[in-house]
Amino acid sequence: MANLLRRLFSTTQPEVSSATAKRMNFNSADLPKIFLPPVNRSMQTLDKSFFHKVVPLAAATISDVKQITNIRKELDNSRDLLRVSPIKPLREDGSAPGAKCLLLRPEIDAKEPTTWSATVERLVKDNLASLRDYELTLTYDDWTMHNILEAILPEIPEEDKETPAGFAQVGHVAHVNLREAYLPYKYIIGQILVDKNPNITTVINKIFDVGTESVFRTFPYEVIAGPDDLDVTVHESGCEFKFNFGKVYWNSRLGTEHARVFELFREGEAVCDVMAGVGPFAVPAGKRKVFVRANDLNPDSYRSLRDAIRSNKVGDFVSASCQDGREFIRTATRELRDNPREARLPSKLKISRKLTKEDMQALRKAADAAAQVLKEPNVFSHYVMNLPASAIEFLDAFHGLYYGREAEFKPHTSKALPLIHLYLFQAKLVTEKEEFQEICERISENIGAEVKLDDPELDMQIRFVRLVAPKKKMFCASFRIPASVAFAEP
């Protein structure tokens, strides 16, 4: 029909459609329908053979292979070349030994010159190319995960539509939260995720049973593809972490947030990581020569934290504990005051093969003597409380934490009271100002003193981290312990 209309009404060279003029991939929203896979919304078991399609196109045959580069450039500049990734436009022609052809945009019909651009017309006229029909075969392996999911999942109301193409990846494990409408298709979805993501071998789905989420932020899950193997290895901020994803909390989407906080720490400072998990704040901080006392109540997190400290060689700076967070705040602060640590930073040796054994021993002694000794201060500069569901309830642990130590801080010295980095969930309100106000009120209630954004003594900042649910946000509130709290009589 389109070609017929062109023949009837077109008196000029055809325009290139906006959909194919630009470069696009198979996930493009305006991808021409001829490139979409066949649809089967009743598929209960993944049938890869179903996804076979022949796409009729036009191709420019080039007999002189020496001209391929120039002709391809011309067709690309005129936007006549097929621009759909990952389809490669250069193909074997088959009409003659060594002949090549270039696939053209779908609007071009090899038998209808009225669909040709001026560039195509000139190349044909000058015998540099000839146009022919070309049947492009697409299979399951060609389409993306998104394409296949769109073709098999049920059509649901637009307001609820959310194709589960997004997932969180932790090592070789993909984690999805499937809506109820997609549950009958969970095993197909799992298999497609494995097929289309080479680094994924296991796919799990969170089971939304009310009240089953544990105090350790772990969740019940079901394996929907691959083996039930959740022992993963992940890398973040130049550090390696090994843990069982089913037994500890980890969110790969928070890597930037972890870095934002630990980059606030300065070499030689002391940090108290109250709910440390497997160490995404503590271990990278240790690599930056920051003293960290890290803690987690979950025994599995504690074991993985210790392993990360050892494998990343930060044992001189990072220690691990397995205590209640409230108790840890108090004991770690007291132990830091009474037993600060030291870390030796040995000088680098320049070793020569000409040195004798005695020379080497002398060199090592000299380097050891010249080693820098970094001493842990007896006061924390930062407390990190990364348990957004309930960390705010632990703020009462700061009451009287520095009682009798007023002389160590401003105005008696230049040292400010420690900063608390508190993660918390907050209901979404009409404006951000209202959300900040409610956060301040909640903090004030739990810490036992009025906390305001504009209080110059608190250096308070509230930062949006991520949207957890449509009506639920995650924030990080950073503020100094109020003096009335820190120095209160216990």
Task: Explain the layout of strands and helices.
Blueprint: H1 2-9, H2 18-21, E1 24-25, E2 53-62, H3 68-77, E3 84-85, E4 90-92, E5 100-103, H4 118-125, E6 130-138, H5 145-152, E7 168-170, E8 173-176, H6 186-196, E9 202-206, E10 221-225, E11 231-236, E12 239-244, H7 255-262, E13 270-273, H8 282-287, E14 291-295, H9 299-311, E15 318-321, H10 325-338, E16 342-345, H11 357-369, E17 372-375, E18 382-385, E19 419-427, H12 432-447, E20 461-469, E21 472-480, H13 483-486
Parallel strand pairs: 1-3, 8-9, 13-14, 13-18, 14-15, 18-19
Antiparallel strand pairs: 2-5, 2-6, 4-5, 7-8, 9-10, 11-12, 16-17, 19-21, 20-21
Structure description:
The protein has 13 helices and 21 strands. Strands 15-14-13-18-19-21-20 form a 7-stranded mixed beta sheet, sandwiched between helices. Strands 4-5-2-6 form a 4-stranded antiparallel beta sheet. The chain has 4 domains: 2-138, no CATH class; 153-229, GMP Synthetase, Chain A, domain 3, CATH 3.30.300.110; 250-345 and 373-486, Rossmann fold, CATH 3.40.50; 346-372. The relative contact order is 0.07. It is α/β, with parallel strands linked by helices and 490 residues long.
